[in-house]
User: Fold these one by one.
Assistant:
Number 1:
Amino acid sequence: MFSTSRFSTSSTGFKRFGDDFDFPCPDPTKKQTIQDPAIETNIQVSLEELAAGCTKRLKISRQVLTPGGGTSREEKILTLDIKPGWKAGTKVTFERHGDQKPGVIPADLIFVIGDKPHQYFKRDADNNLLYTTKVSLRDALIGCILHIPTIDGKVLSVQLNEVLQPGAQKRIPNEGLPLPKCPGKRGDMIVTFDVEMPTNLSMEQRHHLANFV
């Protein structure tokens, strides 16, 4: 035979079986509010704009709730302040700027910065600008002066005295994009030399070349 014993609530702090316990209960009158999924939009920014920083204004149209319980369309201008040197993939979020719906939190609007293709340059993960220039075989062997454009609109005159191998590179300091985490500093420009090899040579050219090397 099993026996039971009672514990005094005054001496132990335990409640007897059948006493009330203060368990939290969900309020059935309260609805759980959900938020619409975030909406991402890519924004193409030129390297010139990233070099100096810029402001972009974007017009959106969204559904809003009216005081009478209906809906209407609202146009709104959003301002994106793009800082110098921002990396591709940087996100700017406007919280709760999506469509308004009863019982639903509007979606966040997220604008993702991307690099607009450039005529001359690409950039790497360290905000260096990558530039490729063609060099004739003659200039690669005997040297030359190259005129290199910059993202700021300047043209640099670069003296080349060494023999250039195909694919050789030269680093020009401080001619890249600004470094967001290092105010006042910039990346470099990395110039790659595409040495143009002749597709055919005459016998006379072959003779001269043989004597040269």
Note: Confidence is low (pLDDT under 50) at residues 1-19.
Number 2:
Amino acid sequence: MANEKSSGRTTKLSKKAKAAKPPATDQKRKAASKEVEAETPIIDEAATSAIPDHNDESSQLNVRIAFHIHDVSRMRRSAYDQIMKPMGITRAQWWVLAHLSRQDGMMQTQLADLLEVGKASIGTLLERLEAAKLIERRPDALDKRARRVFMLRSAHQVMKTLMQEEAKFNDRVLAGLTLEDREHLLHMLSQIKKGLSEFEGSKSTEPE
């Protein structure tokens, strides 16, 4: 009997000990929680409040404007290429003639800088214009190694035709805008261009 009572007491004590001892999984969770708290950096609410929210209405509007500017530029180039194609003139050739119409006799290197192309590219471009009898290259009077580019009479006629077609093209594209709208648009685009100039050191190639 004594042994049975002793055995019963031992069993009860063993059960109490097991109940008092927390499960191993709970201990692991608590330890892991403390480690996470120790590794988590303290966030300064004042600092985070200064970080701009790129999901706000203003940022979303800016993205839409950027996409529209890109699409309008791409679509205009594509449409204008269709106008020039029947004349056998590419956009790059048109830029060369446009610059020469403002300053005939430019240095070949100057044209390369304005069009932002290399010497080989401008050389190929001018060769094609020469083959079309639109320009001619002559040695510079002071530096025989340098070459100046001059428009031929046929190029002036091509420019006249291109400018007439461009005027029609612009009237068609901007038909939905009043004169006041166009002036306002020009002002806004100038402001955007001014902002972009801070990121780009190169000169504009847009003829005025």
Note: Residues 77 and 91 are 8 Å apart (CA to CA).
